[in-house]
Amino acid sequence: MRYRTNQGLLIEAASSAEAITRLRESSWNEQNLSDRAYMEAVADRMFQEGIHISTVSPDIFIAGLLRAGLLTREADDTQPDAAKQETER
Predict the structure, then answer these.
(1) Which of its termini does the chain have fewer beta carbons within 10 Å around, N or C?
(2) What average pLDDT does the chain have?
């Protein structure tokens, strides 16, 4: 799965849980939090802005970020690396 944040950062992950880890790692002030604590911190910030993001599970959290417009789903690149390199020449 590929997601783009509303700040333009591309996140690639095999699962919602991995996407949360990547998002947390990209956040300089929240890198030391656990993934669960990161989800709760983001949800708290969004709640202060009137946006409800559930932290029940990683899948529901990511779905909430998508609904809120904080993430967008990017098309997965299905070309093998060799074919991709060939088309870029």
Answers:
(1) C
(2) 88
